[in-house]
Amino acid sequence: MRNLRRTILQPYHYLLAAYALVRYGMPARKMTVIGVTGTKGKSSVSEMLYTILMKAGHKTALAGTIRFAIGEESEPNRFKMTLPGRGYIQKFLARAMKKGATFAVIEITSEAARQYRNLGLFLDALIFTNLQKEHLESHGSFENYFRAKFAIGKSLARSPKRPRAIIANADDERGPAFLALPVERHIPFGAHDIQITHQDHKSISFTYKGTDFHIPHPGTFSALNALSAIKAAENFGVPLSVCAEALGSLETISGRLERIDVGQDFLAIVDYAHTPDSLKALYEAFPGKKKICVLGNTGGGRDTWKRPEMGKIAEAHCDHVILTNEDPYDEDPKKIIDEMASGMTKKPEIELDRRTAIRHALARAQTGDVVLISGKGADPCIMGPKGSREPWSDAAVVREELTALTREKEHEAV
To answer: CA-CA distances (angstroms) from residue 308 to 280, 338, 343?
Structure first.
């Protein structure tokens, strides 16, 4: 029934996108547009590339999961979708062009492509980060998911812009398919391109083509995200020295390895990690530390296959696990948590109220520990039954609870 409904609605989505394209004057034709797609890393790569282009003196527009920005102006994305429909992106680009933006960095999802929201972006370049098991129930199979992603690559091949460039992860199994697209420039990236010189729980440093880079985010995946942005910037003539300066001053990316600090003697991290691979990478970015982990399962009614796997990964890497509510939609949140717990050999702590779960995790932390709250990142609300939305911010809740905890400790010390 769901697939039938989508098939029926496809002409509607196409016509709506085509109307917006004409109505707003095809602004992407007059700008340099770089798309970013993949299962994970899109938001971090987009933010990194936006920062580099701005540092290079290009007024840049950014449209992604976290926010919409035009130059220094920025507003959070509250749509609960990376690339909104109903012609939003054409209207946004028209406004960006009017304000003097010459570059645009746009995250493009498979769902957006299926609804033609990326119609008329006229890409100059596309970054492909990776492809992992996700949205399988929505797409029907992993192969269908790949086809939906690859359709974005085909849109690059159809773009009238010249020269067009594909920047793709050569370490990913699907990378070669993207690198075979019929465009003028094929730019692979991978772990072999860099030499990591230092990494800890706060940052990672590496060299690329003789230039030193310091990224104030931990994990090898942060280095690879940065590398894809660097290679894209290189394609448009940005010197490596400018890339290094921009990335070295990179500010916290909301909901992506976001450190919340109110003066406590342990780390509190908010991250979007919502796939098995991304969750594992998050935990492995903090080796040797006692980990207290709060997680749920993003999106009730979808990707049920990964629930026990997420529980299994958390148990393997965390010293204490708290399973909690995330975005249940119309599904019973307790059922979701029970399915996650089925992948674990020991009974985890279960707390349906997400704020209480976060409070418990922070209260358990001791000097030098790390509390990892994953799954929602910068999501602005918790999605409940019948389309209900509860305004939410993991970062704000963590900050509030840390502040309250600090006051309690100060009071006890008096």
So the answer is: 14, 9, 4
What's residue 272's pLDDT? 94
Partners of 125 in beta bridges: 34, 165
Is residue 113 helix, strand or coil?
helix
Over residues 373-385, the pLDDT tens digits come to: 999 999 999 999 9
Q: Using DSSP bridges, classify how beta strands 267-271 and 125-128 pair: parallel, antiparallel or unpaired.
A: unpaired
Q: Which residues pair with 323 in a beta bridge?
A: 295, 350
Token code pair at residue 25: 């004057």
Instruction: Give the predicted TM-score (pTM) of the model.
Output: 0.92
Alpha helices in 87-185 (DSSP H): 88-98, 110-114, 136-139, 142-158, 175-179
> 106 pairs with which residues across the strands?
35, 63
308-327 residues labelled b (16+ CB within 10 A) or e (exposed)? bbbbbbbbebbebbbbbbbb
Nearest in space to 132 (alpha carbons), one of 18, 245, 4, 42? 42
Judged by phi (left if over 0) then psi (alpha if -120 to 50, else beta), residue 254 lies in beta
Does residue 206 carry a pLDDT above 50? yes
Tokens 């992603």 — which residue? 149
How far is it, in rounded angstroms, from Cα 350 to Cα 336? 11
Arithmetic mean of pLDDT, 13-26:
88
Long-range Cβ contact pairs of 177-182 (< 8 A, separation 24 or more): 177/146, 177/150, 177/153, 178/126, 178/128, 178/150, 178/153, 181/153, 181/154, 181/156, 181/157, 182/157
Alpha-carbon dihedral sign for residues 35, 231, 29, 154: negative
| 20 SS3 class | helix
SS3 344: coil
Strand 125-128 relative to strand 165-169: parallel, antiparallel, unpaired?
parallel
Give bridge partners of residue 185 from the DSSP assignment.
165
For residue 251 the two structure tokens come to 């500010």
| Predicted pLDDT at 1 | 45
Between residues 386 and 138, the one the model is more confident about: 386
Beta strands in 210-367 (DSSP E): 211-215, 258-259, 267-271, 291-295, 320-323, 349-350
Q: With contact defined as beta carbons under 8 Å apart, do 220 and 196 qualify? A: yes
Is residue 260 over pLDDT 80? yes
SS3 content of the chain, % helix, strand, coil (to 5): 45, 20, 35
Give the span between the Cα atoms of 91 and 75, in whole angstroms: 15
Report CA 179 to chain centroid distance, whole Å: 22
